[in-house]
Specification:
Layout: E1 6-7, E2 23-25, E3 29-31, E4 37-43, E5 50-57, E6 59-61, E7 66-68, H1 71-77, E8 83-86, E9 89-92, E10 97-104, E11 114-132, E12 137-153, E13 160-169, E14 175-183, E15 189-199, E16 206-216, E17 223-228, E18 237-245, E19 253-261
């Protein structure tokens, strides 16, 4: 059995040592003419020695995640030609960690707008004991990897709006808020979606849901998100959905929409 690399949409969580060969942080990095270097930390939570390598993969943003970029998209999107990676190969003892440094080439000037490539950290196949019988064990070869976005920014702006918001129900009948982030600028947006509810009367504002690491990429027409609300009914009142900036956009409000909720029948 062979496991391909994992490409995470919006959020990259530390993977448990029971199911993965490594952990990588942070979730993303942004470089520009002023910030020309960034670092990722790769750690080995397993009891095995890991042989790894760092390289690039170009992934196009889609409505729900990523897909491999075709040749034309790569030419317009890829940031890899502007970057250097060091080290490109590494060896980690159990419990050890290493820093992977991404640098903008000395003679490179970021182009207008934004480009993006995904740093791909891969480990070589290792022999793992999965199940032990009386006299023998079942062995499995695993290739594992994680990809994280590295963004190169030149002159431009970041704007986005909230669209196509709907109240749906999940398989248990609980309310689910479905919405889209529509990018409108040259740069990607990054932040959180918050849903609050103000019931008619004196009930006070309720925080219904928060979605972190919400990205709007210019190469995707829109990105869809779902926020479980955890209620069968909200009653009458006003639902407010906000797309607020985080990281380099901390304190910025990209968009806010309000929706009147009618009382249940």
């Amino acid at each position: 059995m062979r496991i391909a690399f994992f490409s995470f949409f919006a959020i990259l969580a530390t993977i448990s040592s029971a199911t993965a060969d490594m952990a990588v942080s942070p979730l993303r990095q942004v470089l520009d003419a002023d910030r020309r270097e960034a670092r990722f930390v790769v750690s080995n939570p397993t009891p095995r020695i890991l042989e790894g390598r760092a390289g690039w993969i170009d992934l196009a943003a889609t409505t729900l995640g990523y897909e491999n970029a075709d040749i034309a998209t790569r030419q317009a999107l890829s940031a890899a030609p502007w970057f250097t990676v060091r080290p490109s190969h590494f060896r980690l003892e159990p419990g050890a960690r290493i820093e992977i440094t991404i640098s903008l080439r000395d003679d490179a000037t970021p182009p207008t707008g934004e480009r993006r490539s995904h740093l791909l950290i891969e480990t070589a196949a290792t022999r793992s004991l999965m199940r032990k019988a009386k006299d023998s064990g079942l062995q499995v070869d695993i290739d594992a990897g994680v990809s994280v976005p590295v963004i190169l920014r030149g002159p431009g702006s970041a704007r986005a709006s909230i669209a196509e918001t709907k109240l749906l129900r999940d398989s248990d009948g609980l309310l689910l808020l479905s919405t889209a982030i529509v990018p409108e600028g040259d740069h990607s947006t990054f932040g959180r979606l918050t849903a609050t509810f103000d019931p008619d009367g004196d009930g006070g504002r309720q925080l219904l849901a928060v979605a972190e690491n919400v990205v709007g990429y210019p190469d995707a027409e829109m990105r869809l998100f779902e926020l479980p609300l955890g209620f069968f009914s909200l009653g009458a009142g006003q639902l407010t959905l906000r797309y607020e900036g985080a990281a380099e956009y901390d304190g910025q409000l990209f968009d806010e929409r309000r929706f009147a909720i009618a009382p249940p029948d």
